[in-house]
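Lab meeting notes turned into a lecture example. A postdoc, R.K., suggested we walk through two folding results consecutively so the class can see how the record format repeats. The first protein's sequence and structure tokens come next.
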Amino acid sequence: MRLFDRVGVVGAGMMGSEIALMFALGGYPTILSDQERAQADTALDRLHGLIERGIVRGFWNAEQAQAAQHNLSAVSGLEDYTDRDLVIEAVFENAELKRTIFARLDSILPPNAGLASNTSSISIASLSAALAQERRRRFLGTHFFSPVSRMRLVEVIPTMDTDPAFFDQVTQALADIGKTPIRVKDVVGFAVNRLLHALVIESIRLVEEGVCSAADIDAACKLGLGHPIGPFELLDNTTNSLSQSVHEILYAAYGERFLPRPLLRQMVDAGYNGRKAGRGWYRYDEDGKRT
């Protein structure tokens, strides 16, 4: 039994598109949009490819995977969300942009519809300022992890205004789509990103000091700490510019311990943004494979 009738996701990048995929696999009719319709259509094609190649199998059976093809659709813009009862925002880490989207959705959605932000570091309460007081009861943070199709954890972040019943509905819906939700207090960076980026910053410092190469640190974290991916591989997959933005947000909140490292700034300024750019801490060919 579904807890929401119709789901919408705003933002058709890697995170947003795979969040939409998970809800579609869970049986929820789900729409996806981006700044341009073509971006949402491209993301939809990629998701259908993931389903057809069986990448999302495991938690999902073949019948659910086939049904997801029909549950997923791309739309042109927020005006198509008038019938949604749960919408998840998954655009890039810019508080002003997120508030603009939430203000528009607040005026478009039915009164009882819920909203969530997939921000990885911005205070959920600060984003709720864009919403009318009544809507704030049905608003919280849902921080998914990349790649969403494989990572099961979701940090769920209520604000001081979030209705406990809505929090329970969202966490149950997340469990129903194969995720493991944990409750986290509404603080900047939440829990996992504070842990992760402390590691990332220290890893970059080790490279700056010539203690280890990026490749050796990745090997150390995988073979010595049991991590599935090294910090520099992760940086390249998620983009260096995103990590720099997160470090700046954490630095503003917590001070020197999260000061963005000079080498990371140099990488971003040089355009070495990771896998999609063809170069980051590693080099990649046109297909995104390391060379």
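The second example is placed directly after the first for contrast:
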Amino acid sequence: MSDQQDKKPDNDVQLAGKIKDSARQIWLAGLGAYTKAEEDAGRLFDRLVNEGEELENKTRGLVEKRVKSVEHRVEDVRDRANGTWDKLEHMFDQRVSGALRRLGIHRRDEIESLEQRINTLEAEIQELKKKDRSGGSSGQK
């Protein structure tokens, strides 16, 4: 057993050395893995940023197309609505005018035309009266 005891300290030193070397290798592998992960993470981050920019550009283009499409549709609907309102207004005017005519109520332009004719007739009557007075006075004398 003395031989075994003599070998034991050597074995312990060798074993401790091996454990120390293994621990160092594990530590270095961990540092290498950390450095590699950090490098890969940086590259991965840059790649993700680039892909994000590409995706943003693609989606921006699609969104702009959709917005333009919606704007065109809104313009079409607005134009149709305006046309419909114009038609509706015209129909309303025609119906109201028809109802007023049936009730014997004349339109403004008809009344204005009649007023103009009355003014013209009144002016002609005044002229005739003036001629009659001047013509009648000279005939009596």
